[in-house]
Write a structure and sequence with these properties.
There is one protein chain. The protein is 27% helix and 31% strand. By secondary structure, the chain is an alpha/beta fold. Helix 2 packs across helix 3 (47-55). The protein is globular, with a radius of gyration of 16 Å. The chain has a single domain, classed as 3-Layer(aba) Sandwich (Rossmann fold), CATH 3.40.50.2020. It has helices spanning 3-7, 14-31, 47-55, 74-77, 106-116, and strands at residues 8-12, 37-43, 61-70, 80-84, 94-102, 122-130, 143-147, 170-173. The structure holds inosinic acid and magnesium ion. Residues 45, 99-108, 152-154, 158 line the site of inosinic acid.
Length: 177
């Protein structure tokens, strides 16, 4: 048994993830015909998903990454800070914010306000996962991979204390379910 299998139960397997990514890529390709997309991958969790999504978009795409982290106890305040910013001006661009999971929605709310202030031509949101039962604010989601119940998930970029980001699937840590 591998290290990963011994610690994490599979919750969303690789074929199901691939199917979701392919579906989102096809929708995005269709919707952005004739437009160049600036993908903004939110570090660190969304990186594996964003890279797979890029390969499923058939059209011109440029890539930016943006790091953000929540302050301690932000669940209630929604206080988020940018730890690594994009390197190009975003004015006039068609932004597609790519996130791993929308939980309370507070991170995305902050990001959208921050990005909107940079005067892009448009902003859309693509998230691999959504936990609607935990929502604290209504947030725009244009492309949604999978809706999950209120479970803490790891893998495919998502971490627990920086661990498990390297798993190829989404799982639940044994004993926490
Ligand atoms: P929100 O601000 O509550 O929507 O939280 C979004 C961020 O919290 C995500 O980008 C993740 O970094 C983290 N997060 C939320 N739920 C999970 C989870 O189940 N596993 C790992 N990280 C999570
Ligand atoms: Mg995140």
């Amino acid at each position: 048994m591998s290290y990963a299998q011994s610690e994490v139960d599979v919750f969303i397997d690789v074929p199901k993830l691939n199917e979701a990514v392919a579906r989102l890529g096809a929708q995005i390709t269709r919707d952005y015909q004739g437009k160049e997309i600036t993908v903004i991958a939110i570090m660190k969790g969304a990186l594996p998903f964003a890279m797979d999504l890029l390969r499923n978009i058939n059209g011109p795409v440029s890539l930016e990454v943006l790091g953000c982290s929540s302050y301690q106890g932000t669940e209630t305040t929604g206080e988020v800070r940018i730890t690594y910013d994009v390197t190009k001006p975003l004015a006039g661009r068609h932004l597609l914010v790519v996130e791993d999971i929308i939980d309370t929605g507070l991170t995305m709310k902050f990001l959208l306000e921050n990005l909107q202030a940079r005067h892009p031509a448009s902003i859309k949101v693509c998230t691999l996962l959504e936990k609607p039962s935990r929502a604290k604010t209504k947030v725009q989601i244009d492309y949604k991979g999978l809706v999950i119940e209120d479970k803490f998930v790891v893998g495919y970029g998502l971490d627990f204390d920086e661990k498990y980001r390297n798993l190829p699937y989404i799982g639940v840590i044994k004993g926490t379910d």
